[in-house]
Amino acid sequence: QVQLVESGGGLVQAGASLRLSCAASGRTFIMYFVGWFRQAPGREREFVAAVTWNTGSTLYADSVEGRFTISRDNAKNTVHLQMNTLEPEDTAVYYCAAGDRRGLRSQGDSYEYWGQGTQVTVSS
User: Fold this and answer.
1) DSSP 112
2) What are the start-end ranges of the E strands in the chain?
3) CA 88, CA 123: separation in Å to the nearest integer?
4) Is 56 left (phi over 0), alpha (psi -120 to 50) or beta?
5) d(CA 73, CA 40)
6) Cα separations (Å) of 24 from 27, 31, 42, 72, 120?
7) Which of 15, 61, 110, 115 is 20 to 30 Å from 45 by CA-CA measure?
8) What pLDDT was estimated at residue 6?
9) In this predicted model, what pLDDT tens digit does every residue of 31-52 receive, in sequence order?
10) For the chain, how far is it from start to end, CA to CA, in angstroms?
11) Which pLDDT score, from 0 to 100, does residue 30 have?
């Protein structure tokens, strides 16, 4: 099993930046990729970004491409999501997730392990 704990959420104004972190523990050696998803009230969960653990290959949703950057620290089993130029539309609960096998990184079904989420609120 893999345990994931997110941190770094908060309330910011539009245009500001936040850095989310996801700390992984347990059987971290089985992680194939780690992703971030978000869910706003009344909306479905949506993919944000993902990184393949061994290669560092990244994938982004069109809505965050160029504003968000995902990175991983293999030694610390931590994944970060640097979010710049935040917009009110980015307001959501952000979840970290990990998958232990090949799959579509943008699909939630490809992930077996999920964190509890961290709230990000962007005011206009």
Assistant:
1) -
2) 2-7, 10-13, 18-26, 33-39, 46-52, 58-60, 68-73, 78-83, 92-99, 113-114, 118-123
3) 6
4) left
5) 28
6) 9, 9, 29, 11, 20
7) 15
8) 97
9) 899 999 999 999 999 999 999 9
10) 40
11) 86
> Per the structure block, which two tokens stand in for 91?
């307001």
Q: Are 94 and 115 in contact (CB under 8 A)?
A: no
Residue identified by tokens 């990000």 is 120
Tokens of 22: 């996801």
> Which of 110, 113, 122 minimizes the C-alpha distance to 3?
113
> Which amino acid, one-letter code, is at 12?
V
User: Could you tell me the two tokens for 48?
Assistant: 């944000």
